[in-house]
Specification:
GO terms for molecular function: nuclease activity. The structure is a single chain. It contains 9 helices and 11 strands. The chain has 2 domains: about 180 residues, Bifunctional nuclease domain, CATH 3.10.690.10; about 45 residues. The protein is α+β, with helices and mostly antiparallel strands. It starts with a helix and ends in a 9-residue tail after the last helix. It is about 35% helix and about 20% strand.
Length: about 250
């Protein structure tokens, strides 16, 4: 819905239809209420880029907005299991579904595991039916969601992500509480300086200077590294941990 409205310039108001028939997009901790959640044009207009909204149900209903590329949304619409058939030329996600099935495995779940700065990370969990052993494969979140859709697998979200990034929505069309994290980029590098890349660069320069016995330069790089780490300490303390949301 948001994707179509965005392409039409947000010219019409719409209704967010919450449905039990879309299990991969409902991350549930308890049974949620069934009905229509009115999402106003003003809310959707805040997201200027193609966005996937995951509906999370836990002591209320939440939306987790994930900004992706056009291709991810278009593919997501195409792989809907509700279509009742797979096209003659299946895409890569139907191929993954068929391959996993032929190997005697199944996609048991996908999980959004963490967010580092403006980038989310996800994993696929494969295993044999009835077997507790699983194979964990790292994935881009948009690919993981498309695989879950094609395989009708559940999606789980890190508890920290839900607490920090999800938006609580209310019946009546207005979010009960919104948080100012609307610019989280799903699969692309964060805009602006990257503290991790900058730290690696400083460490590399310091080690090189030390190896070449340029000790004054090495001390300079060491001091810059220390300054960077001190300035980034608050950010590092707030990083998400891989605790799953059950």
């Amino acid at each position: 819905m948001h994707y179509k409205m965005r392409r039409n310039g947000f010219r019409e108001d719409s209704i967010w239809q919450a449905s039990r028939h879309l299990p991969p997009f409902a991350v549930r901790a308890s049974e949620s209420r069934v009905g229509v959640l009115p999402i106003g044009l003003g809310f959707l207009r805040q997201f200027k880029h193609p966005t996937i909204f995951l509906k999370v149900s836990c002591d209320g209903d939440y939306l987790l907005p994930l900004i992706v590329g056009d291709a991810a949304v278009e593919t997501l619409l195409d792989v809907s299991p509700l279509q009742g058939h797979i096209e003659e030329c299946p895409d890569q996600f139907h191929f993954v579904s068929s391959l996993v099935d032929k190997l005697g495995h199944q996609v048991k779940m996908v999980k959004l595991t963490s967010r580092v700065f403006n980038t989310y990370y996800a994993s696929l969990y494969l295993g044999k039916p009835g077997d507790d052993d699983v194979i964990c494969i790292d994935s881009r979140p948009s690919d993981a969601i498309n695989v879950a859709r094609a395989c009708q697998a559940p999606i789980y979200v890190n508890k920290t992500i839900v607490l920090e990034d999800a938006i609580k929505i209310g019946y009546g069309g207005r979010p009960k509480s919104t948080k100012p994290i609307f610019n989280v980029i799903l699969d692309s590098a964060p805009e602006g300086p990257d503290p991790i890349s900058e730290e690696l660069k400083l460490v590399r320069n310091m080690n090189l200077a030390s190896k070449e016995e340029r000790y004054i330069d090495a001390a300079m790089w060491r001091d810059r590294l220390k300054k960077l780490r001190n300035s980034s300490s608050v950010v590092y303390e707030g990083l998400a941990t891989p605790e799953s949301y059950d």
